[in-house]
């Protein structure tokens, strides 16, 4: 027994001496083996052991940062890398990893400082990262100068693609297309379908910003033919949303959601629902986005946390504003329901103002950042949006932007925005006459709506005409802006008592309709609701040409009242 104990003690002592004599490189090798075998807890324990045994060796916190980075734990990775940098501030690989991690954390200016420092010290292979960071920090001119010089010496499709992106920011269509297409053609020759698909997607976005919508849809289609990616579906959906082709838009956005690991597809779907007046559905999508705090995905996209949050606040504001207006118009019946409606109106109004303030504060901050970085046009437009509701200030920024504008096709967009701010119907009218009638249907609807809002409510034939034009393009584009649908009402039938007639008129008025006694509308067009109360309750909504939009017949009895009918009817009219 004593002999066995002696042998065991000798064995333990030998193991202790073996590890006591272990070099840092041996321990690092064991860490690497543990990582390769997915024994991450073991690897972290060995890293901690290395830090205790060799506190001056920067490699142990560095490999811990590498492990966290590979597991997308970016904050933990940065903490480890900074600790390693404090011990060895001159290691190039370490500093590059810090720059990458800062980029994943959307700390783009800090990431750029590291990249610029490495570049100045002679580190090669950084231009693509630097160009991308110059784009994300609104400093395109710096990136253009750097990358163009490099491409003159040696072609690189990654740099060519980045240069195309930078030229899209400076609104130089020919140069943007040139470098994008050079990169794409090089990728196609190398049979790199993924790269070419990304390139076509980026070019589609650029062409849309250059007002060449036909080219934009062509390149988005090319992108999808090469690879079924969420970006291609989002691009096609956005372009079809401009045309108010809602069924195609929803189809594309739902396809994108299936492929997308980022919140972008949900944001686009929320915008679609908001535009159609499906506000609870839009709010549901926005709340799902707001719950997701992960932001590392932005590293690969041309936006930063501020821009994404800015757009999210704008969407929340629009949805709550719409719910406020819509709930005010649509009546509820029953004491409890009326109380809840009043509370909802108050809640929606407060939330709308809250997000409006958040949006305004962030937009001023982001607009100034864009101006400071050299993106004068984009910065002026962002500041103008922040100043909405304050005409002297918004006028100033829109004026600055218009002076920098290089596309004549942008003129009606400025007329729309400035006309809205100045409450200038003639300018809004000019915008409506200048928008592309095939592609810019959404903007056309918006110009009609702004004119209708400025005209006095009541028996204004021009206002009715405008509202009917809006309804014709987008039935959901009325109630959420406080606009009622003008309707000629004709009632008849053996069971139609004076009390029933008054009740029907009241219910319709509380359901978003503005009743007219005569048939007036756009260019002779009008909507008429015919109700016949006999043995059955029959109704038909039609236009002046006799085209039936909605019809039905039902027996009104206990459990199915006029209130139930009007709830179903208004849903079919405004949210088909």
TrEMBL record:
It comes from the Bacteria. Residues 1-20 form the signal peptide. The keyword Signal applies. Gene3D superfamilies: Tetratricopeptide repeat domain (1.25.40.10). InterPro entries: TPR-like_helical_dom_sf. Keywords: Signal. This is Tetratricopeptide repeat protein. It comes from Oceanispirochaeta crateris.
